[in-house]
Amino acid sequence: MIIEHTRLCEINGSLVTVDGVENPVYEEIAHFFLDDGSVRTGRVVKIDGQKVTLQVFEGTRGMSSSNTKTVFTGESMHLPLSPEILGRVFDGLGRPKDDLGEVYPDKKQDVSGAPINPVAREYPKNYIRTGISSIDALATLIRGQKLPIFSGSGMKHNELAVQIVRQSAIADGEDFAVVFAAMGVKNDVAAYFRSQFASSNVMNRVVMFLNLANDPITERIMTPKCALTAAEYLAFEEGKHVLVVMTDMTSYAEALREYSSSRGEIPSRKGFPGYLYSDLASLYERAGMIEGKKGSVTQLPILTMPNDDITHPIPDLTGYITEGQIVLDRELSSKGIYPPVSVLPSLSRLMKDGIGEGFTREDHPALANQLLASYAKVQDARALSSVIGEDELSPSDKALLKFGKEFEEKFICQGFTECRSIEETLDLGWKLLSSLPDSELDRTDEKILKKYCKK
Length: 455
What we know:
The chain is of the alpha/beta class. It has helices at 133-138, 157-172, 187-199, 217-236, 249-262, 276-284, 313-321, 330-334, 364-388, 395-412, 422-433, 446-452; strands spanning 4-5, 10-12, 15-18, 28-34, 39-48, 51-56, 68-76, 78-81, 89-91, 107-110, 149-151, 176-185, 206-212, 241-247, 288-289, 296-304, 324-327, 347-348. Strand 15 and strand 16 form a beta hairpin.
């Protein structure tokens, strides 16, 4: 028997309260029928006896205690799934946004997901070739990893994400799929991703979930959950290697802060809710590989650091949860270097197990260590040069300055359409290191040096 609740007790922002609900269930979906014929959807976020608070996805504008009837479905939010979701565009709640009609599902899956059993997890080892030297050589992306991009407002993080998606798709072939989730982005950013995927001939392997800047924040909170549910289906039931690009996680966290404030919760650092860490972890930890399953879910979340502050709560907590980060540098960007990857603070904590003989090349670990060590010395030489002048530097410091300039202009910098193989990247690294005196190459075994570093 369907029971209609005819009165709303309270409306507060995107939250409404209904009283007299028997046996309510947390995260249960309800439908709101307005007198004008429109229908809205909400989910239960708080239960106090028979008094239930619901979050309305489309917002509460136009709703009142007298013009709204509420019907509880008895189910949590489920996403319809089938192989035909590839090539489709959905809104933040998984409703079709293109002109291709409804999805005829093979199954429906709860968007809240479930954590992967740690015993069933397979340790990520196979690397993903992005074709970008600064990432492939020094912060290698491993299949099943979560590796965020820390950027700043106005920097070219979207272009970098598109390049990674395009070039990874070429390397991985037909088993590769992309799930793209946009949260609070402008229309032009969404159109840019859509056009780039189409022009790169990978749109037939992309599922897009778009929550735009003018869409409700309550929908924004559900967008990454829907995207990850689709990714898990494609990976673990369709056997695909799925790359999940989520932009912008800062918009997601700010929507969570606004939602928390409307619930009257006690704020934590910079006004964000105290559960921000566990909430982000519930999303990021849905990446990985499962033993006995062919597919994998790799996450590439993008977040813009407010005021370029890497200690801000969003990048700070993200760094604790994820397995490294790719940091974009505004100074490199101002020099015209693309992609402006700052290699010293960037790292991939899983790369040590996915590079070297059997994966990339035997000299890869040695080259990465030597490049990072030498580039760190470049920063010291530049600091000294700014104090005493370049003319007063020792010959080795002058050689380091020259190496640093060439490293940024030839190794880090590469065109938007330039895709380098791992062999080209490693050979270029050794070529640049060969300009340094032997005394500066102190992080590499003599045998490797003789074989790869041709003076």
